[in-house]
């Protein structure tokens, strides 16, 4: 029976297509389902017409309505057709004539290229390359290596005509999709092996036969990253009517491979720079696990902040339709989960969670009581990074504790007094009916270790910021079995003081760790600019802090303007400029709720809200609840609170020398030299996180002296 499948290119254009035209698409789809092949080709309304002078006879057009045409891949064999684009009549015909469809002999997927334009421009580039003193872009790769990665003879000729990445960018939108990706990653500096491992291998289909380059029917089924087969009209109606979320349907092969792998023999990890779809993969993994859950089993989906919990909840709702199935997933912050565990103890005394800013004064008080003359900051860090991290409960254990990684000196003779001060601090807290969040996590981990696990699977997002006590809790939450932990995180976005190594916690992901490289959120221009903030800074891996992470090959297929930067003389002038920028975005048709304003401090954010409101622009402090409704006001928040979120347009304000790095957030080198470096890096990463929240537009401003991070990045 014939059917009409849908190409990702059609979905990308969907927001621009009006409802009556969408209805026409639905009608066409139904016709393909209803009619025989013979009837389809004869149908006068559909007009499944071949073109005059096409590059490919398999590309035809169909009539959607009086003015609109669909461009369809109509293979000469099989009965599956693919709707590639819906365009106005003349444009559709012109575009359709130029395209050519082929089957990639390595990935076995269908590829579409703009063959006419490529044929036209390649000779000119060849001439320029011959006259150029520059080496060819792909010189160091042999024809054999390129062919093994799926580059065919035509693309090879085109690739060989290029001398730099800018030229590749001109060719990229015209090239066959899988081959385009291979060339882009090689051009970014990835090795043949890396490209094979990360890009090609995930797309491979299990097949014993050599590929049949005429069998489009099979190749369409091998093209799940780009072609969707829709089986029910409700499903299609749903896609056409709701704002289309491509991530629900089209996963990159590297994403699909991680998310839908039948089973992992132990904990698994997905890493990758901002916007590479780690959260998307985590959600799809939950969907996969739900499909295999036994009676009574449950899943914990957890992350760092409440705003992210809401985003995960909304994401799961759109991915998993069945509410009963969704009800088998608990979505909460790690701290929230810990609170639930400790509250379940019979006769549990409710303890107030201590706010982070209360902690230091309490340490000072405890030190005064015991006569410890070191700083409160030292004590707070010793407690966090040694005592709680290693779950130390006795003086003997503390005296024997490994302090590697700490940059402050402490003699054996000094340890008893530090321990006495720790005991004083915890006793005073208990007497006041309070407890730090990390204490709650540590306590919950102990309880679970005694009582046994709660969940069959635990899926963790934003894993880079979790403290060892939180990891112990998550480790204890699920039995050590295949598929117990699935961890998504990016060490470049470590903005809280938790430099953890999964290896040191006994969570081994070696051989079950995958890195995503393609950014789906921001434009390449925004990425390049933001990534410069981190260049040359060693960032420890999440898996093993003895090794460093890289952003090699990290890239976006999207293009737009580079970030705008604005230097103001005073804070007032900077706020005026912010209002002007937000107005410009609104005038360009961006919704107020699609704009985010981020600052290092809450007080800067409050001023921005007030100033925007004075100018008649709806603005509010970032909402952490009720994500069911899309915001209709500009969202303003601290850089920390922007973690994991995204906006069409982002303004990062107050990026001054005094704010980034914020001196109070950076331990003085004389207290702890290593901590000093870690804190500085967190501040740098914080700016990186804020900037990488932007999809289309990024604006960065300061008054007076700009942050040295900007200067060092060449701004
Ligand atoms: N395969 C895909 N197709 C289309 N869009 C995608 C795909 N994967 C991810 N996206 C989109 O890219 C954006 C970033 O995805 P996501 O938030 O999962 O990335 P992330 O790696 O978790 O980011 P961060 O680490 O910065 O929080 C989202 O808008 C998401 O919908």
UniProtKB/TrEMBL annotation:
Q: What class of enzyme is it?
A: isomerase
Q: E.C. number, please?
A: 5.6.2.4
Report which reactions are catalysed by this protein. Answer: Couples ATP hydrolysis with the unwinding of duplex DNA by translocating in the 3'-5' direction; ATP + H2O = ADP + phosphate + H(+)
InterPro entries the record matches = DNA_helicase_UvrD-like_C, DNA_helicase_UvrD/REP, P-loop_NTPase, UvrD-like_ATP-bd
- An example of a Pfam family matching this protein is UvrD-helicase
Q: Which residues form the UvrD-like helicase ATP-binding domain?
A: 251-523
Which keywords annotate this record?
A: ATP-binding, Helicase, Hydrolase, Isomerase, Nucleotide-binding
Looking at the record's lineage, which domain of life comes first?
A: Bacteria
Which positions in this protein are listed as binding ATP?
A: 272-279
**Protein's name in the database:** DNA 3'-5' helicase
> Which source organism?
Streptomyces pratens
């Amino acid at each position: 029976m014939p059917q009409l499948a849908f190409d990702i290119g059609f979905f990308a254009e969907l927001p621009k297509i009006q409802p009556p035209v969408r209805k026409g698409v639905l009608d066409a789809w139904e016709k393909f389902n209803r009619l025989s092949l013979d009837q389809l080709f004869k149908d006068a309304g559909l007009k499944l017409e071949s073109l005059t002078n096409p590059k490919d006879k398999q590309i035809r057009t169909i009539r959607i309505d009086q003015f609109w045409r669909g461009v369809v891949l109509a293979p000469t064999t099989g009965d599956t057709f693919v709707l590639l684009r819906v365009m106005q009549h003349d444009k559709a015909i012109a575009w359709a004539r130029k395209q050519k469809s082929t089957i990639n002999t390595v990935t076995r997927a269908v590829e579409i290229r703009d063959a006419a334009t490529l044929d036209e421009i390649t000779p000119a580039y060849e001439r320029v390359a011959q006259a150029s003193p520059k080496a060819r872009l792909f010189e160091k790769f042999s024809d054999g290596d390129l062919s093994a990665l799926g580059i065919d003879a035509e693309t090879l000729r085109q690739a060989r005509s290029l001398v730099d990445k800018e030229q590749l960018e001109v060719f990229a939108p015209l090239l066959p999709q899988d081959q385009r990706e291979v060339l882009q990653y090689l051009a970014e500096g990835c090795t043949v092996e890396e490209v094979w491992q990360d890009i090609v291998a995930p797309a491979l289909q299990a097949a014993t036969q050599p590929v049949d380059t005429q069998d489009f029917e099979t190749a369409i089924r091998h093209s799940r990253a780009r072609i969707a087969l829709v089986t029910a009209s409700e499903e299609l109606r749903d896609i056409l009517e709701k704002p289309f979320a491509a991530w629900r349907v089209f996963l990159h092969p590297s994403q699909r491979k991680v998310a839908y792998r039948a089973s992992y023999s132990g904990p698994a990890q997905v890493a990758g720079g901002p916007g590479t779809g780690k959260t998307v993969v985590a959600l799809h993994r939950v969907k996969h696990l739900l499909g295999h859950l036994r009676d009574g089993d449950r899943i914990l989906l957890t992350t760092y902040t409440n705003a992210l919990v809401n985003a995960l909840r909304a994401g799961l709702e759109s991915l998993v339709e069945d509410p009963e199935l969704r009800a088998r997933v608990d979505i909460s912050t790690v701290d929230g989960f810990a609170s639930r565990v400790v509250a379940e103890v019979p006769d549990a005394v409710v303890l107030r969670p201590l706010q982070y800013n209360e902690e230091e004064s309490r340490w000072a008080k405890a030190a005064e009581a015991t006569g410890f003359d070191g700083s409160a900051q030292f004590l707070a860090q010793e407690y966090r990074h040694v005592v709680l991290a290693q779950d130390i409960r006795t003086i003997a254990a503390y005296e024997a504790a490994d302090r590697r990684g700490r940059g402050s000196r402490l003699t054996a003779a000094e340890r008893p007094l530090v321990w006495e001060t720790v005991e004083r601090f915890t006793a005073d807290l208990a007497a006041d009916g309070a407890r730090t969040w990390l204490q709650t996590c540590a306590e919950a981990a102990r309880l679970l270790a005694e009582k046994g696990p709660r969940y069959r699977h635990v899926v963790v997002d934003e894993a880079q910021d979790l403290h060892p006590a939180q990891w112990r809790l998550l480790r204890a939450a699920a039995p050590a079995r295949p598929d117990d932990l699935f961890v998504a995180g990016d060490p470049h976005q470590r903005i809280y003081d938790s430099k953890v190594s999964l290896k040191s916690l006994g969570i081994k992901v070696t051989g079950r760790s995958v890195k995503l490289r393609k950014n789906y959120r921001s434009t390449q221009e925004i990425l390049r600019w933001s990534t410069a903030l981190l260049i040359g800074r060693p960032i420890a891996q999440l898996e093993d802090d003895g090794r460093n992470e890289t952003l090699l090959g990290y890239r976006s297929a999207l293009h737009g303007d580079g970030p705008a930067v604005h230097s103001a003389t005073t804070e007032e002038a900077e706020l005026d400029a912010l209002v002007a920028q937000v107005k410009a975005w609104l005038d360009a048709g961006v919704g107020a709720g699609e704009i985010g304003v981020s600052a290092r401090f809450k007080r800067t954010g409050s001023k921005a809200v007030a100033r925007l409101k004075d100018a008649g622009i709806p603005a509010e402090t970032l909402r952490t609840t009720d994500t069911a409704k899309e915001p209709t006001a500009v969202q303003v928040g601290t850089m920390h609170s922007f973690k994991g979120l995204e906006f069409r347009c982002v303004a990062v304000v107050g990026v001054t020398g005094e704010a980034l790095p914020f001196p109070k957030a950076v331990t003085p080198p004389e207290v702890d030299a290593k901590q000093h470096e870690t804190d500085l890096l967190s501040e740098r990463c914080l700016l990186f996180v804020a900037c990488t929240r932007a999809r289309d537009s990024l604006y960065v401003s300061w008054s007076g002296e700009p942050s040295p991070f900007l200067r060092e990045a060449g701004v």
